[in-house]
Amino acid sequence: MNAxxxxxxxxxxxxxxxxxxxLLKPEATARDVERLCMEAIQYGFASVCVNPALLPVAVKTxxxxxxxxxxxxxxxxxxxxxxxxxxxxxxxxxxxxREVDMVLAVWALKQKAYPEVLSDMRAVVESVGSGCxxxxxxxxxxxxxDEKVTACQLALEAGVEFVKTSTGFSTGGATLHDIALMRxxxxxxxxxxxxxxxxxxxxxxxxxxxxxxxxxxxxGIAIVTxx
Length: 227
Description:
Elements: H1 10-16, E1 19-23, H2 30-43, E2 47-50, H3 55-62, E3 68-73, H4 82-95, E4 99-103, H5 106-110, H6 114-128, E5 133-137, H7 145-158, E6 162-164, H8 176-186, E7 191-195, H9 201-210, E8 214-217, H10 220-225
Parallel strand pairs: 1-2, 1-8, 2-3, 3-4, 4-5, 5-6, 6-7, 7-8
Helix pairs in contact: 2-3, 4-6, 6-7, 7-8
């Protein structure tokens, strides 16, 4: 399949370069992922984020393009064993993923088992190697502000590249409050990804103004083509 890049407004191009074009529904097929990749090429999105089983399809379709193949790890609960997360992330990297979005060990954070939270993230970072970045999904809707602060601090210590709000599969998505809080904690030492419930250009621009520099959304086309 071929996809010619489309002409977008300057604002649309800027937004597109910050969007992870995402399809994580369990019923998504290989053909759906191929279509997602062609859209990413056409609109100039930062990455395509898909479930691990369909990562090879994305890697193959995006070969020779600047679009980043991305997948998830320990998704969507974050409650798998650390060794399992590390193996899953390492396999993704060896398959061609250049970014992996892992889910925080929320259960460990809740019981203040901070060394376990840290070692969980570090294991994933170490498993993917230098050619693949790691984002950690905090699932902010399940955390107190104090827990969000601690999670961000541990993420910096673990060496992740981004802290991210949500899986999109829990009780809530990104909020402006959470984005501003996360940015205040990580400063310039890590990126902040807003994900969950971002449906319009207004939503996207508000998240960026609050401190996000990456957006996870399945509504990317509508966002970048809005006049």
